[in-house]
Amino acid sequence: MKELHLDTHRAVRYHWRVWELTGLMQPTGISRFWYFIYSLVINASVTILFPLSLVARLFFTHNMQNMCENLTITITDIVANLKFLNVFLVRRQLHEIRSLLKHLDERARQIHHPEELAALNEAVTIAQKGFQYFARIFTFGTILSCIRVAISSKRQLLYPAWFGVNWENSWRAYVICYAYQLFGLVVQAVQNCASDSYPPAYLCLLTGHMRALELRVRRIGYGRGRLNSTHEELLDCIRDLMLVHQLKNIIQRILSVACMAQFACSAAVQCTVAMHFLYVVDDNDLSAMILSIVFFVAVTLEVFIICYFGERMRTQSEALCDGFYACNWVDQLPVFKRDLIFTLARTQKPSLIYAGGYIPLSLETFEQLMRFTYSAFTLLLRAK
After folding, report:
1. Which one of 34, 194, 201, 271 has the lowest number of neighbouring Cβ atoms within 10 Å?
2. Helix or strand or coil: residue 282?
3. pLDDT score of 331 more than 90
């Protein structure tokens, strides 16, 4: 019964729910005016003011160690908000993807082949688990920040920020600032969870539909149908291929800026952490050293996940091309072979998603990033 109601858009239902709660996507049944007011309040109070309080704190920092610690957090938060803003800018393309997925799902339901349905359901499961893993990470980080404040010997905030009030000597001001930071931290964690996990989720969906089409193509010509019907089957697969390429092009547009922002964030944070860890941090300040390592690992892991799923998509696009070679084209009509040749010419080049239109999302790119990071650390160690 699950396959009869196939809906691969379920892979991003958590993301859409988050975007609805954070004022990006208007849910059905809610007044447009009141949702606009809600969106304006929550984004003005958190998405805008929260990073501004972090940036303002940088101007009141008097030593290099605090500057590096604050800059690491500030860069990460600003880039996360830019990725969140990018979702708002590409919301029309997100609706286009939803419409394309309906057409592709309808084709899969009509054919109703177990292997295809299994491939699509697996893609949905991987995407949903990815969101859940990110949610656990952000939940752990939020709880850890609260515990760090609770066990501290002196009064401090969840994150270094400037509010223009003397919260260190006023209990009421401290409670208000802490409550605002906790609220902002929760909202930002929810936003970041969706912003960081939707690129691999959409890459999973694209890879899953490529896999389903590959399985469909490989079966062409091996049944007992007439030659004319086999040619029609090929034409149907070609139409599906056009939809898949259209889906890939839209995903390219929505991920280009987001992935480029993630690469830039990773490079900036890695450089800041390197300076902090090698030159500034006190050897006895264990918490600062752990903070540096955690941020370094976090931004590196985010880039790895994007590159990994981009590599899976590229590999699957090559397998899709091989699927056209594997169909039973030998026994078919000349018109079948002609259309197959045209299709093969179109699928020879592997599909890739590019960050910023230039940097391919592949494991080779991640390897180059790691080599650059290693070289930078080696250079800093020699200069120390």
Report:
1. 34
2. coil
3. no
